[in-house]
Task: inverse folding
């Protein structure tokens, strides 16, 4: 699971979080377990925060 959550204050780049999401889905190649789904949901939240941060920085 990701060591950095959206609430921890540190925002990783969207590309890094996206790579973690892809790795999770590649690793499972099946329906996600409850634990994996929770990890996926946290990664999606982190990805959204990273994208928002990158858009804000670009503006």
Result:
């Amino acid at each position: 699971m990701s060591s950095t959550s959206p609430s921890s204050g540190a925002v990783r780049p969207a590309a890094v979080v996206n790579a973690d999401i892809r790795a999770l889905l590649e690793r499972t190649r099946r329906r996600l377990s409850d634990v994996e789904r929770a990890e996926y949901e946290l990664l999606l939240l982190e990805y959204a925060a990273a994208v928002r941060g990158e858009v804000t920085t670009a503006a």
About this structure: The radius of gyration is 12 Å. Residues 1-6 have pLDDT under 50 and may be disordered. Helices lie at 14-28, 34-58.
